[in-house]
Design a protein that fits this description.
The protein has 430 residues and is α/β, with parallel strands linked by helices. It folds into 2 domains: 3-68, no CATH class; 85-429, TIM Barrel (Alpha-Beta Barrel), CATH 3.20.20. The protein is 54% helix and 9% strand. The protein is built from 18 helices and 12 strands. The protein has helices at residues 3-42, 47-68, 80-90, 94-100, 106-110, 120-128, 144-162, 194-200, 203-220, 250-266, 297-302, 305-313, 327-330, 340-350, 365-368, 373-383, 394-406, 412-429; strands at 102-104, 133-136, 167-170, 172-174, 177-178, 224-225, 270-276, 291-292, 318-321, 324-325, 356-359, 388-389. A hairpin with a 2-residue loop joins strand 4 and strand 5 (177-178). Helix 4 crosses helix 18 and helix 9 (203-220) runs parallel beside helix 10. The protein is globular, with a radius of gyration of 33 Å.
Length: 430
């Protein structure tokens, strides 16, 4: 190998070594970077990093909760309470299921002219026909001690017979409609007219009224109150609602209704919003005869429905449907309480209500003037109603509804649907 060849070989060796060193340095840098990342990963974070991480975690948790509880519009895939209610209903006889769909007076249950106790006669009557609920009037309520004993005994009778509570209900709105507060023997505070509460513009006052009413009703043994009145007083000629309404402003009424429901609920009493589609927009009294409201669905949605819609969105368990005819919506003069259009299409589908629908008292002139007790009961259930309140003739209504199922006029599935709703609310009481 000559000198030139040796010199060229040395240059080549030098270049090769340089490449090797370069590669080694690059590899070393990569390794060091990896080590740095690993070390950083396990080192305590700075306050800033902690805060960011916490914020992101909270947001993720909130998002997860939102996904799990997206609101009342989206039902969970499986509701354990629904499943439990369905199982209980499946074990009931048809006769017992039909009985659960009635709320009647203790007089209608026992056949007595006046009832102020729940003894052996009441027990025998209830064991034969376990109605879903009882409604008590002023004549049934004499004193704190007497009322508490009567309702306690009644509840015990129901639990022994069905394993479920019975709805023990009363009209206790305050003001002009107060079965308890109007009786000095009870010594409770009358919250006054809803119109006065509404005039304050402060919904907290409605909440306080609900707490007050709920407190003394619960202590007596009641679990359902036919209040608050959700009617918007839009007709100046209206006399039947008047001071019972929170006012003529739909949004104010909606806020007041929602807060009173919360007040009642805080004391363990279920409120019942009434009288759908709205008794404040008529001049007549459905106690006396047919009553018509000449409004379109769009007009009702803008005013009369506003308090009901808000109550539905806030999870109200009971809505009372009145005997008000709305021909522009229904197409004829069928009372809302008997109308599939008003109950199933409007209240359930459009307003999204899935709770118990109960009629206004079925012994009122708007019903008895045109329908027999059994006709009205069958029409109401086919319309989508769950509970019949105070039929003119309970025996006729009960037997008529039972016969309608037996002859196929009403399917047993339809009965099961209503009774499942009823049982679900009763399970919530336990």
């Amino acid at each position: 190998m000559n000198q030139e060849e040796r010199r060229q070989r040395r240059q080549d060796d030098f270049k090769h070594a340089a490449v090797v060193v370069t590669v080694f340095i690059l590899v070393l840098m990569v390794v060091l970077a990896g080590v740095a990342v690993a070390v950083h990963k396990f080192l305590p974070k700075s306050n800033k990093t902690d805060k960011t991480t916490e914020t992101r975690s909270t947001e993720t948790l909130n998002d997860s909760r939102d996904m799990q509880n997206p609101g009342e519009a989206t039902e969970p895939a499986v509701d354990p309470l629904d499943e439990q209610a369905s199982q209980l209903v499946s074990g009931m006889s048809l006769e017992d299921k039909v009985a659960q769909m009635f709320v009647i007076t203790p007089e209608a249950l026992t056949g007595y002219a006046s009832v102020t106790a729940a003894g052996d006669t009441t027990k025998a009557a209830y064991e034969s026909r376990p109605v879903g609920g009882l409604i008590y009037m002023a004549d049934n309520l004499l004193s704190t001690e007497q009322t508490t004993e009567m309702l306690t005994n009644m509840q015990n009778i129901a639990m022994e017979r069905t394993g479920l509570p019975v709805f023990l209900s009363v009209d206790e709105e305050g003001g002009t409609v107060a079965r308890v507060a109007k009786n000095d023997a009870f010594g409770v505070t009358d919250v006054g007219n809803m119109s006065d509460i509404g005039a304050t513009g402060d919904a907290q006052n409605a909440y306080n009224a609900g707490v007050t009413i709920g407190t003394y009703l619960k202590q007596l043994g009641f679990n359902v109150d036919y209040a608050p009145v959700a009617d918007v007083l839009t007709n100046p000629d209206n006399t039947v609602i008047g001071t019972r309404s929170f006012g003529s402003d739909a949004s104010v009424v909606a806020d007041m209704v929602t807060k009173e429901l919360e007040g009642l609920s805080s004391q363990g009493v279920f409120g019942v919003v009434k009288h759908f589609p709205g008794h404040g927009g008529v001049s007549g009294d459905s106690h006396d005869g047919a009553v018509t409201m000449d409004k379109s669905l769009e007009e009702l949605m803008q005013t009369e429905f506003v308090p009901f819609q808000k109550a539905v969105e806030n999870g109200v368990s009971f809505v009372m449907v009145g005997h008000i005819s709305v021909p522009q919506v229904v197409g004829d003069n069928t009372p809302a309480s008997l109308s599939q259009m008003m109950v199933s299409n409007v209240l359930r589908e459009q307003l999204g209500y899935q709770g118990i629908v109960i009629t206004d008292a079925m012994n009122m002139g708007a019903i008895t003037g045109s329908y027999t007790a059994d006709q009205a009961a069958v029409m109401a259930v086919n319309a989508g109603v769950d509970m019949i309140l105070m039929p003119q003739d309970y025996e006729t209504a009960y037997n008529g509804l039972l016969q309608a199922v037996q002859d196929g006029t009403i399917t047993e599935d339809r009965i099961n649907e209503s009774v499942t709703r009823i049982v679900k609310v009763k399970l919530q009481m336990q």
